[in-house]
Predict the 3D structure of the following.
Amino acid sequence: MGTIKRATRRVAGKTKEVIAEVVGDGKLQEEGQAEQRKSEEEDKEPGTLNPLGNLHRLT
């Protein structure tokens, strides 16, 4: 997944969490935290872009 999508998900999660704290909605706060965790987990995954990945086939 792209860096922009991960950053967007992280910001959306934090926004939900802050709004939930103001409104007092526990479920929305949990959703926001879950989105942030998912974004952090995706940050730890190795990137899938490998432009030289099939170079061995050419030789």
